[in-house]
Amino acid sequence: MKGRAGPHPLDVPLPHDLRAAAGRASRDVALQQFVGGATLHKDRGRRETCRRAFGERYDALRRHAGAIKQHTLDHLDAYLERFIARARESGAIVHAAATAAQANEVCLAVARRHGCRLCVKSKSMVTEETGLLAALETAGVETVETDLGEFILQLDGDAPSHIVTPMIHKDRAAVGRAFARELGVAYTDDPRRLTMIAREHLREKYRRADLGVSGGNFLVADTGSVVLCTNEGNGRFCTGVPRVHVAMVGIEKLVPSMEHLTVFLKLLARSGTAQPLTVYTQVITGPRRPDEDDGPDEVHIILVDNGRTGLLRAESRELLRCIRCGACLNACPVYRTIGGHAYGSVYSGPIGAVITPALRGLRDFAALPHASSLCGACFEACPVHIDIPRHLTRLRAQIVEQRIAGWRERAGMRLWGLALRTAWTYRLAAWAQRLVLRRLARRVGRRSRDSARADAAHRPGAWIHAGPGPLRAWTQERDFPAPAARSFRQWWARERGHARAPRRDIPGQRGTPA
Fold first, then answer.
1. Buried b / exposed e across 107-135, counting CB within 10 Å, b at 16+?
2. Quick one: which of 145, 174, 195, 328 has the fewest CB in 10 Å?
3. Chain segment 368-413, per-residue pLDDT in tens
4. If you write DSSP's letter for every residue of 21-89 in order, what string do you get?
5. Mean pLDDT (the chain, rounded)
6. Beta carbons of 74 and 256 less than 8 angstroms apart
7. End-to-end alpha-carbon separation of the chain, Å?
8. 285 Cβ partners below 8 Å, 6+ apart?
């Protein structure tokens, strides 16, 4: 299938310029409407669904799920060995891939050995990470994304901008245009009609496909099973109809047993889409048995590292707990404003801001840890209790320690550190800052006196509308309040002095008749 020509949205020059990408996204009115509305709705749904289901036990359940994943990661070697042994006992063929290129080559080798010409592919973040779609197409294997959102993005030559809702940045009119252009149908923006057009097109692909590719939401060590959670049923077609099924899964997706799996199934759909459970939950254990009517003749499981073992360091290991529910994206005010493509990587939002620098290099993605207000909304939303704000600040510290930041930023941080080191330097810096900003506010206020009269909220001298230096980025989007004439310390000293000497003119004060 051939989509729109042009560069892939995530083929960004390195080092990635987040500031420029975020600036473009923040000026895209349609993007603001689509992403902002959808994420607010999803985040509200998550809160209400989890409150109804778990009540006050929700935080304890999050901690329990996090502890299960942390235990598995702490003993990942043992659980990997157990999974491989059980999967092979069930008849699956297990491969290990250290890099994205190796993972793609394993899949291509399987396709070549079986002479596969048509691949139907279920939604998978790890195959986005490795670039499998392009690799298969280059090798001459027609490959069709079958998740409805991914299918539309493939038609447009676009990339996912959300972990769970890949086409969150598009509306139904864009879908109608893509279908008319690529599938030769009459334009419509009716959701039901668009769905039926996609179904009619994809059913024929399922019927003829000889290779099915999927990811995996979980791997169960005790049974050697791959677990797929989907809402559209396309995952079952991809894994049940073609004679060869390849599952490409990150090594961090392991859970010890089916009993532990139930904990994550309770949390995954509720966190991502506010559902009690995804519509389809498949547990795939080996190929088709002799007494079964459908299923593949061969199941290949590719266990992908691609930088994950580097994250197993004690300081970053908990990041591998992530179950790709997308809850942190929906809760994040920064993601809500700039969307997913601005992050320049497959993994966007708060989790992408900490995982991408680890997987692809901190130097090339040094801006991502700063794409956060550190409000903690991502931590509150995470169903496996990953303290993302802590990792954001840790990476910011590494940027300084490794001298990745520019000299101006390093100098500014050094001066700030010196100012905070002692009481007298802090007071001196606060006095200088207050003096400069108040003078700047008065100067800007005089220049904009006419407009200030029209808006009482922007009184001359009260707000800074166009700040200098680093303050310019803030004032591009909002006004900066001028500091008060007196500092808090000065105010407190005066008020405390008044408290020690009660004023006689206030009725009810001690020594004064009421």
1. bbebbeeeebebbbbbbbbbbbbbbbbeb
2. 195
3. 999 999 999 999 999 999 999 999 999 999 998 898 988 877 788 7
4. HHHHHHT-HHHHHHHHHHHHHHHHHHHHHHHHHHGGGHHHHHHHHHHHHHHHHHTHHHHHHHHHHHHHH
5. 90
6. no
7. 87
8. 87, 90, 92, 223, 224, 225, 226
